[in-house]
Amino acid sequence: MHPPFEPLTLVHVVFSSRIAGGERHCIDLANAQAALGHRVHVIGSAGSAVASALAPAVTFHGLKLPLLRGWRVAALARQLGADVCHGHLGPACKAVAHARPAARIGTLHVGYKAHQHARLDGLVCVNRAQHEGLPQGEALASVIYNWAPELDASAAARPTDLRAELGLAPGQLLVGSVGRLHVSKGMDLLISAFKAHAPADAVLAILGEGPGEAQFKALAAGDSRIHLLGYRSDVDQALKSFDLFVSPSREEAFPLAILEAMRAGRPVLSTATQGPREMLAGQPARLVPVGDADLLGRAIAEELARLRILAPEARAVSYATAAYDRGNAVARTLGFYGDVLLRQAAQAQHFEDEEAAIIA
């Protein structure tokens, strides 16, 4: 992107109180943009965990109440002199739609919904299927793949041995998953599949928190092999302990957890949702049908039988991940902002020319 659009004043909006995939993407993008010299702000809910994860150069603005969020986001964006207002997840995108005259951008972390995204100036699609399925409209759109957030140096300095934490014997295999405890993420399917088909000495660890926690703990009750470990700040370290990573989601646009498992070199088994179908095409990973606990369980058992005969060091997998390069994606996002801003400038000039012609 070229001047006069640099440096930009960028305002990201995300209303979640806790950190999951979309929130982590927002945090890492904001931090990366600030490191490049842009003036970066994040608007969120007061008390959100997002605030503490932002770099010192990023300013967080907490809204105490959810009332009139669109109006309040717009007012704050104008006060800050925002060039771009970028929404992450549906409620934030709906609020960003009010933030004129800033360029209003939304990332489709989940999928397109007209009531949340139709009034935006630009849409970032996280897979090709999203882009191909967009309705005809005024918004510019671009496919920019997500990336695994930058490794946390402080967490890496505190090695995690999840196997020791769970008391596993050397020969036991550990199945793991990372995600929000919500029905869309399919953790209930994974628990049922594991209970029905995993070998007796295998162990399942699920990292994450969310509204389905009580339901999933009840489903796992009575099986001492299953551990719901809640939110973890050491995901990258914990992943290295997994013998098999499973993504059991019912819907998934672009799961960061799979990228992190790929970066950690873990064998990956995933349901064939929209994002993983594209991410894992041609990769040494396995896909199974969505929503079928029996087939998922059988696949887990087959993968564990395959892995059991390999030495631990031979279980590592190498993936092609160049398409998910962080620096390239951040640069492309900034370039997309420039495209939207240039289009806005051209439209404004066109309107001025039409008004001048009418007056003349």
Report on this model:
This protein has 360 residues and is an alpha/beta fold. It has two domains: 9-147 and 325-359, 3-Layer(aba) Sandwich (Rossmann fold), CATH 3.40.50.2000; 162-315, 3-Layer(aba) Sandwich (Rossmann fold). The protein has 15 helices and 13 strands. Strands 3-2-1-4-5-6-7 form a seven-stranded parallel β-sheet, with helices on both faces. A six-stranded parallel β-sheet has the order 10-9-8-11-12-13, sandwiched between helices. Helix 9 (187-197) runs parallel beside helix 10 and helix 9 packs across helix 14. The mean pLDDT is 92.
Give a nutshell description of this structure:
The chain is built from 15 helices and 13 strands.
Overall 3D form: elongated
Structural class: alpha/beta
| Separate helix tally | 15
* CATH fold description of the largest domain: Rossmann fold
What's the end-to-end separation, in Å?
36 Å
**CATH 2nd-level architecture of the largest domain:** 3-Layer(aba) Sandwich
Task: Provide the number of structural domains.
Answer: 2
Using only C-alpha atoms, the radius of gyration works out to: 22 Å
Helix and strand string, N-terminal first? EHEHEHEHEHEHEHHEHEHEHEHEHEHH
The helix fraction, in percent, is 40-55%
Supply the CATH superfamily name of the largest domain: Glycogen Phosphorylase B
Mean of all residue-level pLDDT scores: 92
Count of β-strands: 13
Strand line-up across the major sheet: 3-2-1-4-5-6-7
| The CATH top-level class label of the largest domain | Alpha Beta
> How large a portion of the residues is in β-strands, by DSSP E?
15-25%
